[in-house]
Specification:
Helix content is 34%, strand content 20%. It is α+β, with helices and mostly antiparallel strands. The strands form 3 sheets. Strands 1, 2, 3, 4, 5, 10, 11, 12, 13 and 14 form a 10-stranded mixed β-sheet that branches. Strands 6-7 form a two-stranded antiparallel ribbon. It has a two-stranded antiparallel sheet with strand order 8-9. Helix 2 links the parallel strand 3 and strand 4. Helix 1 crosses helix 2, helix 3 crosses helix 12 (358-376) and helix 5 (163-173) crosses helix 10. The chain is globular and about 60 Å long.
Length: 400
């Protein structure tokens, strides 16, 4: 097997729901980051990219019909470059990178742009077709998040609990208190603010020009989901599931918009185009868990990965775990027998603070991790995520 390397990456700032990016189509968001990545690589003829692969979770609106192909054409890449969209729900952006890595390791490609995109603000309502002629009964679903057109058999076998309800299940079963969740959420916010103030995100975030009715575009250049808050403010928030629940808007990730890409290259391509690899992509693993506790997915995926690679937690220098919910992240962290605030965990904050554009987040985790490995001169980073309907995905990268 050949080796696959992560060379360069970038992302948009993450927009809040209904915020700065809410007027931008998902295919345009993805096209922008693809175009900017290609511009940073003038030594590569655009026709030499073997493929563009993007993760996207929704695909019910403007992101439909293979958003990767649409985006690469909108970005100005030649029509000879193919594109494919992958969907592993929340893990889609990481799955896209894994797809690229597999092709390069097999020797069937040398240069692939991999990433993810989601504009949750623009997720449409969808209508069902009637099941009988002339029926006046039409079902309407909001595609922003969660189930739509659920199969009755699936509901009977596994239930169709909302994402927040699955986090409540973990909190209850593992005795994770509201106070501990809020502490973890505050920690995420504080780290994210500190990282932005220190300029760390300037390595990965490119400003996005927002068109204006008159005059020049305004540059959107900072994640806007973050909040400066306190434990007192977080404690005052009402639960989002049921009156005595523990999941709130303050200790959960956001509904967000954004796009991210990285360049995955073979050793041959690195030499040919004089590229600078940042990290080696070692391996990944995916595992399934009961849908009602989908948030525990990273535990089994990581166990599978560690067993295959014969490594232990002491070997890991950096842990980027997607914070779908504080309860979910803490359930994984405690299952791994780590401290709730292990300094290796999300040093620049996580999805509770930064936001969680579903298809983008997996790419953001890997991008953030590879740049931190380089800046801090660390060696190994684990990136891991839970996935709706009961899965987890983990990957291990190594600084060069």
């Amino acid at each position: 097997m050949k080796e696959a390397f992560l060379c360069i990456g970038l992302r948009t700032p993450i927009g809040k729901y209904g915020g700065s990016l809410s007027t931008i189509r998902a295919d345009d968001l993805a096209a922008y980051v693809i175009k900017k990545l290609v511009e940073k690589l003038p030594q590569i003829p655009p026709s030499d990219f073997d493929e563009v692969v993007l993760g996207c979770s929704n695909q019910a609106g403007e992101d439909n019909r293979n958003v990767a192909r649409m985006a690469l054409l909108l970005a100005g890449l030649p029509h000879t470059v193919p594109g494919v969209t992958v969907n592993r729900l929340c893990g889609s952006g990481m799955e896209a990178i894994d797809y690229a890595v597999r092709k390069i390791k097999m020797g069937s490609a040398h240069l692939i742009i991999a990433g993810g995109v989601e504009n949750m603000s623009r997720a449409p309502f969808v209508f069902s077709k009637t099941e009988v002629p002339f029926s006046r009964e039409v079902k309407v679903y909001d595609t922003t998040l969660g189930w739509r057109f659920p199969n009755p058999i699936m509901e009977k076998l596994y239930g169709i609990e909302s994402m927040a309800e699955t986090a409540e299940n973990l909190a209850r079963e593992m005795n994770i208190s509201r106070e501990d969740q809020d502490k973890f959420a505050l920690w995420s916010q504080e780290k994210a603010w500190s990282a932005w103030e220190a300029g760390y995100f300037n390595e990965e975030v490119i400003p996005f020009p927002l068109p204006q009715p008159k005059g020049d575009p305004i540059l959107f250049n900072r994640d806007e989901h973050m909040r400066q808050t306190s434990l007192e403010k977080l404690a005052a928030l009402k639960p989002v599931t049921f009156p005595h629940g523990t999941i709130t808007a303050g200790n959960a990730s956001g509904i967000n918009d954004g796009a991210a890409v990285v360049l995955v290259a073979s050793e041959e391509a690195i030499k040919k185009y004089n590229l600078t690899p940042v990290a080696r992509y070692i391996d990944s693993a995916v595992a399934g868990v009961p849908p009602r506790i989908m948030g525990i997915g990273p535990v089994l995926a990581t166990e599978k990965l560690f067993s295959r690679l014969r490594i232990e937690w002491k070997d890991i220098d950096l842990i980027e775990i997607n914070e779908a919910f504080a309860a979910q992240a803490l359930a994984c962290i405690r299952s791994w027998k780590l401290d709730d605030q292990d300094p290796r965990i999300n040093p620049q904050g996580g999805a509770i603070a930064l936001g969680h554009p579903l298809g983008m987040s997996g790419t953001r985790l890997v991008l953030t991790a590879m740049l931190q490995l380089q800046r801090k001169k660390l060696t190994y980073a684990l990136c891991t995520m839970c996935i709706g309907v009961g899965q987890g995905i983990s990957c291990l990268i190594e600084k060069l």
